Enoyl-CoA hydratase/isomerase family protein (Microvirga puerhi), 697 residues
Amino acid sequence: MTELLTQTVSIAVHGDILVATTDNPPVNALSHSVRAGLGDAIATFESNDSVRAMILICAGRTFFAGADIREFGKPMHDPLLGEIIARLDGCSKPIIAAIHGTALGGGLEVALACSYRVAAPAAKFGLPEVKLGILPGAGGSLRLPRLIGVEAALSMISEGRQVSAAEAIRNGLIDAIFEGDLKDEAIGFARRIIDAGAHIRRASDLFIPSYDPALFEAARASMRKKFRGFVAPQKAVDLVEMAARMPFAEACEPEYATCKELLGSPQSKALRHMFVAEREALKIGGVSTDVVPRDVRKVAVVGPGTMGRGITVCLLDAGLSVVLIGLSDEGLSKAQNAIAKIYDSALKRGSLSADEMERRLSRLTLTQSYNGLADVDLAIEAVTEDIAVKAEVFRKLDNALRDDAIVATNTSFLDIDELARASRRPQNVAGMHFFNPAHVMKLVENVRASHSTPDVLATITTLARKLGKMPVMVGRSEGFVANRMLSKRTREAQFLLEEGATPAQIDRVLSGFGFPIGPFALADLAGMDIMAAARATRLPRMSEREKRCNIVDRLVAAGRLGQKTGAGYYRYDAKRTASLDPEVDAIIESHRRDNGIVARVITDEEILERCLYAMINEAAKILEEGAAARPGDIDVIWTNGFGFPTYLGGPMFHADRIGVRTIKAALDHYSTLVGREYFQPTALIERLATEGKGFYG
Ligand code: CAA
């Protein structure tokens, strides 16, 4: 008979085994009612002499996915997780964690405090706290190295690496993997171990043999490089070193204190905000969760250029079939070679097997014809950014595709409604704006056209997720969100250059802020010809000053196309190591001279404020226009698209931390210094500043 202990935890006695089942959808987070229920289950177990073992199992899609993130920052009610875990550890009879789905964070800590752990074959295990800017605080970082060794535990705790059931059984994290019904198997397992007279086992009783301190120094150096600017990964290494040095009982308190301190840190708040924002971004306004996405198995990609190739690779990687359509044999064979090169380097890195590469390539057809597309479910158009050329592709696709097939354009700035008008199926038209290189970059701006139906929007969201991307739905607006904001930062970086800053100073300030690379080093990487071409397309809509500020064109004219020609804003040696180049200073100086500009000293503060606040002001305009649905969507776009540091929570979250009033005052100042047309605060910023509010209320 099943007895409900709390809203989320029930118990049932199976002979001499007690089974405690948690059912707290969607992911069995360890919320208050779960903790209380587990406390009651432990008490029942301890007081009932007729039961000899207890099984902790979860209903639904997963074992405990950790502490309830939504409870963070609110007053916590007893029993706390640490207390439950201490009681599990102190039990006088064996407890078995039966794990399916993912045992994460506090969920894995619960399992680690049990005597035994058994799992379904697809189960995964991890301590991802570091990704939320915190660390395990209930003995997880002390028990794990005792159980699986310091080195294996280090990567799980400091990088948040998850391990499969196969790896977990090899390293001793779990005791058995069961293919059959997990509850029945776990009951059988429990009975076998108690019949065999098995004792309770405690990871906390295990002893860590001597370790090499150099391991921790190497881990610290690696964390500094991999997670530049993040606090928690460094602290994780300290914690595991402490676990290795100190007896378990002594280390509990400092472990909890570290977790608590990090929980209140600005980085953790920002990272937790990102966790929620990324999930919110998948909820599309006007598209209810009941809407069923269409099935997409085969995709036509039109345009075998750089974007088309990258998109093709990520579709093949996700198991889809692709027809890549081009205009000429030459274009298609170039694409084929480029795709083969991408796979070859994956092969060399060991991230892909030869068999798997063959399988992926066998799903690719290259053709110049639009015939035989009746089984294509969705087409992605990635041809030249020319409305007439794209409209022609839309018309051809109309004739070739089934009526219910979707057409998505990869345009980065053209009006999708205008393209939809060229189609007989405007309801099936939307945008999927990938970023270059498309097989690497995580962000996809999905664009809602005026007539896109809810199931089309749901389909492109699901497809992007299947490709391993982070899709964000945006509205129609030139440059959408990411590039529209980036163009303001680019403008300011160029203006600052002509006013007196150097590329190296601006790059230093922005990478010091947390961007992975400064704008000028990035331009050299992307290619100055690409930057000049992007500038040329925007030229008709530029202000007089922007038109005049043509340093990019001057560099291109001097043959400085970036890393590929050994010179751009910097000079590059054969290993592509950058150094300063006086020729660049001379080109910038000649631009100033030609335009009567006298260089002045520019502070780092001015550089940061102008680059950042110009973006934030544009973002506010985007929100006013409804081109982005929520500030969180903009944060997700910038952290996934252009490396805005996640530990600052994205531009809008960061803006709130600075304070909208402070930003408005700075915008007013730069309106005077640079020009009102560039820095006039938007109505939204004016209003928020007056009301003393932030973008997040
Ligand atoms: N607390 C509260 N809600 C959570 C949650 C958690 N730990 N984990 C996931 N959710 C919610 C999500 O917000 C989402 O809610 P909505 O549907 O309302 O958007 C829902 O559960 C489903 O989540 P996903 O969309 O992410 O589902 P998925 O199937 O793609 O992934 C998952 C499932 C692997 C469990 C993933 O959600 C995940 O990685 N969760 C975070 C796990 C984590 O970080 N745990 C550690 C927490 S900190 C801790 O435990 C330490 C401590 O004690 C202090």
Q: What stands out?
A: The longest strand covers residues 9-14. The two ends are 49 Å apart (CA to CA).
